[in-house]
Write a structure and sequence with these properties.
With 253 residues, the protein is α/β, with parallel strands linked by helices. It has one domain: 3-Layer(aba) Sandwich (Rossmann fold). 37% of the residues lie in helices and 20% in strands. It is built from eleven helices and seven strands. Strands 3-2-1-4-5-7-6 form a seven-stranded mixed beta sheet. β2, α8 and β3 form a beta-alpha-beta unit. α3 packs antiparallel against α7.
């Protein structure tokens, strides 16, 4: 029988679920404020369906985000993590949804504004990336999921190392910068983000560390060795099952 990439990926995902209900077990073991955030009834069903693959409870534990903290989420997309972050930090915390205001990203900015007016998430407000970041510090955590590679898109024309330095400046001493992204082939260059919406993990580490950060932790929880890392992340054969790296950087005290 011929095994396709999609078959291998689906089989690997199913095996992970069958092997003791991994996602459910780890969610149950997480702190109560995390399990409550993941169980938030305001989360769309489409988001909940992605939980076995995106593992939000494990990601929140890795990031060590707590109630009362201030978090900046860069390029929040469709707010999969924004809603969870909002519930974790709670009424004494705050989440800034930072989206580019130009360069063809008007839809992202409009979406960030729409969530900031949702009464279910009153502790979320929108800021424009990158210019608005300077007004929100000091913050405890800066978070970006599946979007660091977007900083390198030609249409955005961002100074990425300059942005990393700005992120460094708005974090409190000891604050964390969490990056989750789609892995590219080792050794690949900066043409890949525009072509495949992936990025070479080593480039991310080099850029962020050059801004003054220290790499403090890595997670393999959402790695997928069956992903050859050569397909566009939106390709049906791999979408939702890409190999992803998870990095935690800290601003030294």
């Amino acid at each position: 029988m011929r095994l396709t990439l999609k078959t291998l990926l689906c089989g690997a995902a199913l095996a992970g679920v069958l092997a003791g209900g991994f996602a459910m077990t780890t969610v149950a073991a997480a702190p109560g404020y995390i399990t409550a955030a993941v169980a938030d009834p305001g989360r769309p069903d489409a988001d909940k369906a992605r939980d076995p693959f995106r593992k939000p409870a494990e990601m929140m534990e890795f990031a060590r985000i707590h109630p009362g903290e201030t978090v900046v989420e860069l390029i929040p997309g469709k707010f999969y993590f924004t809603r969870i972050l909002s519930k974790i930090v709670g009424p004494t915390g705050h989440v800034y949804a930072a989206a580019p205001g130009g360069g063809g990203s008007g839809d992202a900015k409009a979406a960030a504004v729409s969530l900031s007016t949702d009464p279910n998430y009153p502790n979320v407000s929108d800021v424009t990336l990158p210019g608005g970041l300077g007004a929100v510090g000091p913050v405890d955590v800066v978070w970006t999921a599946q979007n660091y590679h977007d900083f390198h898109l030609a249409r955005l024309k961002l100074d990425v190392v300059g942005l990393d330095k700005l992120i460094f400046s708005i974090l409190k001493p000891g604050g964390e910068f969490i990056i989750i992204d789609h892995a590219a082939v080792a050794g690949s260059g900066l043409d890949v983000p525009d072509k495949l919406h992936r990025i070479n993990e080593d480039i991310v580490k080099q850029e962020v560390e050059s801004a003054g950060f220290v790499l403090e932790g890595e997670s393999d929880v959402i790695r997928n060795p069956a992903d050859p890392r050569t397909a566009l992340v939106f390709d049906p054969s791999i979408r939702g099952h890409t190999d992803q790296f998870v990095l935690r950087f800290r601003k030294p005290k």
